[in-house]
Design goal:
heterodimer, A: mainly alpha, 5 helices, about 80% helix, B: alpha+beta, 4-stranded antiparallel beta sheet, two-stranded antiparallel sheet, Methylamine_util_MauE (chain A)
């Protein structure tokens, strides 16, 4: 009985920490990209996909990130927020992984922001960790 | 108590918004010029050019930078991280005369 109570408290705190981590991550990266929009747009256009796609990506991505943070804040939309986080982070992780293994004809510089200078390999592992956190968060939220 | 606990994610969001504004500055300074060279001999003024459209910065193994604040890699300040190479895309950009 004691162990079960301890497990429930631990699980609750893990859920809180994952939730706050994802909210901070999506909010900071989304708002940061909008504040320094020209920097981010240039970094996206520097990526190895057509500029026509890059122009849309540069505005849609930060707006989606802020939207995900808002979905995670609200208890009623939290599960949707976790699902969206998994989808978004899966896409990011896949792209970073492809750049890291040099699947494209060139390796571009980073996408600006806080992870610009860490390199694509570290960027990949950070994204993968956040993806796993989002999955765990969804599991816990669904159990509730 | 439960109301306060339920408001914590919103508080985290608001604090992070402030932090994002505080630590991200738009790059709209009119005073920093930016120059790049694909080979070290011909230099291009890319201050008003668009990264990704007029030129690219790609990762490179050599210890060099993509752009500098003067048309020289030795007597100027580098802009951005090291191990990056300048690639000219827009052939209409005229090289500057040194």
């Amino acid at each position: 009985m004691f162990r079960y109570g301890y497990y429930m408290v631990l699980r609750k705190w893990i859920a809180h920490i994952i939730l706050w981590t994802l909210i901070v991550m999506w909010t900071y990266t989304g708002v940061g990209k909008l504040v320094a929009y020209q920097n981010f747009r240039g970094a996206i256009l520097n990526q190895p996909f057509p500029n026509a796609i890059g122009a849309y990506v540069s505005i849609i991505v930060p707006l989606l990130e802020v939207l995900l943070a808002i979905l995670l804040i609200n208890l009623k939309t939290r599960v949707l927020g976790f699902m969206g986080s998994i989808a978004m982070m899966s896409a990011f992780t896949t792209y970073v992984g492809l750049v890291w293994v040099e699947a494209f004809e060139r390796v571009p510089c980073g996408c600006a922001g806080i992870l610009e200078s860490v390199g694509w390999e570290v960027h990949f592992y950070i994204n993968l960790s956040l993806l796993l956190l989002a999955m765990i968060g969804l599991l816990i939220a669904n159990e509730k | 108590m439960n109301t306060i606990k339920n408001r914590v994610p919103l508080l985290v969001f608001i604090l992070t918004v402030f932090a994002a504004f505080a630590f991200n500055m738009p790059n709209n300074s009119p005073f920093q010029n930016e120059f790049g060279s694909p080979d070290g001999s011909e230099w291009y003024d890319v201050t008003s050019a668009q990264l990704g459209q007029d030129y690219l910065c790609v990762e490179d193994e050599e210890a060099q930078h993509c752009t500098y604040d003067q048309p020289s890699s030795t007597m100027s300040n580098p802009i951005g991280d090291i191990e990056r190479r300048f690639v000219l895309l827009n052939e209409d950009l005229e090289p500057i005369e040194l």
